[in-house]
Amino acid sequence: MTEAGTDEQRPEPPRHWEADVLLLDGSAAHIRPIRPEDADLLVEFYARVSDESKYFRFFSPMPNLAARDIARFTQVDHVNRVAFVVVLANEMIAVGRFDVTAPGEAEVAFLVQDQHQGRGIAQILLEHLAQAGRELGVGRFVAEVLPQNRRMIQTLQEAGYSVGGGYEDGVMNFEFSIDPTTTAMGVMQSREHRAESASIEKFFNARSVAVIGASRRQDTIGQALVRNLITGDFTGRVYAVNPSADAVSGLPAFKLVSDIPDDVDLAIVAVPASAVQDVVLDCAAKGVKGLVVISSGFAETGDEGRRRQRMLVGLARSYGLRLIGPNCLGVINTDPEISLNASLSGLMPPRGRAGSARRSWRRSTTVAWDSPRSSPQATAPTSPATTSCSTGRRTTPPRSCCSTWSRSATRASSHGSPVASRAASRSWRCAPAAPPRVCPWGTQCAPSPLPERLSTPCSGRPG
Q1: pTM
Q2: Domain 15-180 adopts which CATH fold?
Q3: What are the residue boundaries of the structural domains of the chain, listed by start?
Q4: What is the pLDDT along the chain (463 residues), one digit of tens a residue?
Q5: Fold category of 200-454 in CATH
Q6: Is the CB of residue 331 less than 8 Å from the CB of residue 339?
Q7: Torsion of Cα atoms, 249 then 254 then 260 then 263, to 10°
Q8: Contact 261, 294 (CB under 8 A)
Q9: Burial of 85 (0-12, 13-18, 19+ CB in 10 A)
Q10: What span, in angstroms and rounded, lies between the C-alpha atoms of 197 and 377?
């Protein structure tokens, strides 16, 4: 029998302790309770941690973990001994834990891989450990920290709790109640807001865009995406990815995203649904920061499509990628310093103070747009006819409100933390020009013909 007991006796942690979270730089990660089968991941993680960070954690040189330590760290009872790990791209990048030392009191400690320090991971671990502690009747955390460990000291002092303690034998002692104070809640909400803003900024302020599924054939989605980026005067670099072509619209074509010699900030995906997962893996290997999946064939098609969509979202999150889509229209930023039209709309909306998101709205030709006077936002729309505006007032309808086609996009969150965007409940809808009708704002619109590139049936396939 191990210290934590046999597998049959060891209780399972609550399911809500597992969540997808956003880091301060806007990338996604996964936090969950540690498991006995994480032993190999823990060993690999510990090997990547610097000697200094190991010394800060254990107060002595500890280059390797003994078998007994590995068992003690991975085999916990989730009651008196609780540990969380943060996982990214199937690798452990941080671990945090508490051990109950007295009724209502527990000692807390963290270890974050050096290259991931400064991304708010320790604060996320503290928030989740504190919530787990409150659920288990723990009311106070204590921590021993070396004075040189400034990052850990800063994390504890800036968490929003009333921290006390002292200094003894060269070690700083911290103690604080983990009751959710107004300040602590404000700190958590501020971190989430900054992380969410940074994640959306990856899409709006991209300096290089790759179109996967770029096509030479007219009246195809891949061709429209490339054309709209170029004719929209995008100020960054555009790359075409098509394994069957040498060039698309005058641009050299690459067989894979990983073949592109420069960095890629944003990938626009317009390939058959069955090929999207391979594209995600290729983009993850390249270090792409955000994905906009135009492809249909997901949840809107039935049970099989929903299963495919869940796999897509899970895969993107596991590699820290932010995702808009699938089955979406795209993103637009009218800031003249960016001028990004990474969408299927041939028309750029007029510049203004509004930042907007659309969800299942047939009258819209844009999913989102941004202006230099309003920071990027990802609001979850509450009705199909609602815009979010930086001035707090409803704006006049955009000139494109009478378009006859649309896609959809939504946002999801888990365990109180923002996560990568997921979406899609509608497939392509092509229709002839509509008669006069009333816009959501109550004003009558003139008939709006279909964009020229949609005069033929929509295939959803690249050329």
Answers
A1: 0.71
A2: Aminopeptidase (3.40.630)
A3: 15-180, 200-454
A4: 344 444 456 678 999 999 999 999 999 999 999 999 999 999 999 999 999 999 999 999 899 999 999 999 999 999 999 999 999 999 999 999 999 999 999 999 999 999 999 999 999 999 999 999 999 999 999 999 999 999 999 999 888 888 888 888 899 999 999 998 898 899 999 999 999 889 888 899 999 999 999 998 888 999 999 999 999 999 999 999 999 999 998 899 999 999 999 999 999 999 999 999 999 999 999 999 999 999 999 999 999 999 999 999 999 999 999 999 999 999 999 999 999 999 998 888 888 777 766 655 443 443 443 444 433 333 333 222 222 233 333 333 333 322 222 233 333 333 333 223 323 322 233 333 334 433 333 333 333 333 333 333 333 333 3
A5: Rossmann fold (3.40.50)
A6: no
A7: 50
A8: no
A9: buried
A10: 6
The pair of structure tokens assigned to 145 is: 């920290």
Tokens of 141: 């955390």
- Domains 15-180 and 200-454 are alike in CATH topology: no
